[in-house]
Amino acid sequence: MGNNIIVIDDDVGTALFFKICLEDEGYQVNIYNDPNSLLEEFEPGIYDLLITDIRMPRINGFELASRVRIMDSKIKICLATAFEEYYQSIIKSYSDLSFNCIIRKPINKDNFLEIVESRLNESK
């Protein structure tokens, strides 16, 4: 089972909340608040899952996920958003990234962990 997760959210509090929830469950978690830093430091083959906020300055979550997927074709991706309806149309245009994993904000811890676990257990 995959244990290494990378979380990016430009809101420091949200990123820390994700990290604490996941580490309580035994996952190894690295957090970033700046998409450019993540892209500069990202190493393929280390992480099993990327959890990315969609709305971030400069690089949105879709763009970030696309770039990470190019660097690491095996990484699984979950998008976190408070505006799911608005993004459903955009998600369709990124169908090659298999964004079948949406984490709704505000976060419900149990729900969030269930989504993460099921995404990590998927074969693709």
TrEMBL record:
InterPro entries, A to Z: Bact_response_regulator, CheY-like_superfamily, Sig_transdc_resp-reg_receiver
PROSITE patterns xref list: RESPONSE_REGULATORY
Name this protein carries in UniProt: Transcriptional regulatory protein ZraR
Species whose genome carries this gene: Candidatus Nitrosocosmicus oleophilus
Taxonomic classification: Archaea, Nitrososphaerota, Nitrososphaeria, Nitrososphaerales, Nitrososphaeraceae
Regions crossing the membrane: none
Residue intervals of the Response regulatory domain: 4-120
Keyword terms, alphabetized: Phosphoprotein
Source organism, top-level taxon: Archaea
Keyword Thylakoid attributed: no
Gene Ontology process terms (BP): phosphorelay signal transduction system
